């Protein structure tokens, strides 16, 4: 069997001033006709991604890209060929978008995306759009609920929108009681809370927003262990573990340690170059974990990450609040 051809594609995630996203519908005669997608097209020989994005959006929508930045790179296998989606966020553009090839165009909110049928390859784009750039992991004092919840609320007030409840020292009953109160608080501030533990926790707390699996725990599954309307994260340290996260259809992964940490001084850090090479062709968003702080968000994105995940920099920062 011959080697599959690789098609490089530039894709634009375009937002308007209201925060809505622009999507277009494929013509019925096209591959996966009728599906909605984020606009873009093939990158020509010797063309940079930015140049292809400019050209495609000009040809398809009659707009000019003013400001854009990389969001995620997604490899995807079709039976006949291999596609790599180079997805960029378009933060500023000029012109009034309109389908220049007769294709329907719609502005939709993030919440409305679930109402449309997208190609499977676009699922990771939607995850990357909807996930924030900071993922806070809770720390101590889980055994002091009132202090714990005060720290959580302080972080939520400061804009944290994605939280992992990690409280290894608690027994099952204490964990569930804390989780119920933490969930109520997170939802009050429009944030999502994932439970670090077994997927069966969702049977007890169906209102939770998802599950965070350890790398070891993820190997117990051959398929996605929770429903698609919940978030599934997997903590990883190697490429093999990232591949397992993809295999079980996780929504995102954590990769650590990127930098040295005080809590795990003997763990050799990956460094940014290694982090970048490991996540380059992983088709799901990946957070950088280990030695992170808010000032490294952009650096993580520049190296192919979704953003940063942290305990010390995000949770412990609330100690002074």
CATH class of the largest domain: Alpha Beta
Mean pLDDT: 92
| String of helices and strands | EEEEHEEEHEHEHEHEHEHEHEHE
Work out the oligomeric state of the chains in this entry: single chain
First-last Cα distance: 62 Å
Shape: globular
How many distinct helices? 9
The CATH topology of the largest domain corresponds to TIM Barrel
What about the largest sheet?
8 strands, parallel, barrel
CATH architecture of the largest domain: Alpha-Beta Barrel
Main-sheet strand order equals 8-9-10-11-12-13-14-15
Give the proportion of residues in helices: 25-40%
Radius of gyration: 21 Å
SS elements, strand count: 15
Can you tell me the number of structural domains? 2
GO molecular function: 8-oxo-7,8-dihydrodeoxyguanosine triphosphate pyrophosphatase activity; 8-oxo-7,8-dihydroguanosine triphosphate pyrophosphatase activity; 8-oxo-dGDP phosphatase activity; 8-oxo-GDP phosphatase activity; metal ion binding
Family: Belongs to the Nudix hydrolase family.
EC number: 3.6.1.55
Domain Nudix hydrolase: 4-132
């Amino acid at each position: 069997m011959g080697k599959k051809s690789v098609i490089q594609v530039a894709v634009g995630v375009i937002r308007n001033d209201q925060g809505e996203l622009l999507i277009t519908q494929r013509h019925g005669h096209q591959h996966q006709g009728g599906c909605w997608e984020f606009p873009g097209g093939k990158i020509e020989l010797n063309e940079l991604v930015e140049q292809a994005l400019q050209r495609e959006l000009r040809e398809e929508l009659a707009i000019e890209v003013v400001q854009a930045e990389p969001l995620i790179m997604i490899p995807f296998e079709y039976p006949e060929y291999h596609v790599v989606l180079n997805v960029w966020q378009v933060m500023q553009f000029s012109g009034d978008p309109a389908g220049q090839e007769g294709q329907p165009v719609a502005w939709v909110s993030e919440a409305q995306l679930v109402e449309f049928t997208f190609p499977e390859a676009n699922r990771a784009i939607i995850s990357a759009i909807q996930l924030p750039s900071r993922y806070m992991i809770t720390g101590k004092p889980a055994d002091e609920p009132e202090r714990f919840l005060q720290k959580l609320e302080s972080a939520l007030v400061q804009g944290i929108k994605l939280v992992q409840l990690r409280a290894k020292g608690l027994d099952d009953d204490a964990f569930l009681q804390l989780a119920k109160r933490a969930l109520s608080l997170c939802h009050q501030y429009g944030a999502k809370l994932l439970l670090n533990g077994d997927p069966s926790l969702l049977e007890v707390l169906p209102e939770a927003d998802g599950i965070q699996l350890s790398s070891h725990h993820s190997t117990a599954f051959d398929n996605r262990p929770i429903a698609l309307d919940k978030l599934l994260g997997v903590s990883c340290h190697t490429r093999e573990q990232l591949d397992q996260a993809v295999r079980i259809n996780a929504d995102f992964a954590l990769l650590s340690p990127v930098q040295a940490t005080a809590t795990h001084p003997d763990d050799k850090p990956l460094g940014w170059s290694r982090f970048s090479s490991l996540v380059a062709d992983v088709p799901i968003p990946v957070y950088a974990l280990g030695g992170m702080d808010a000032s490294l968000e952009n650096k993580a994105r520049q190296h192919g990450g979704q953003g940063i995940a942290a305990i010390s920099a995000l949770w412990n920062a609330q100690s002074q609040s």
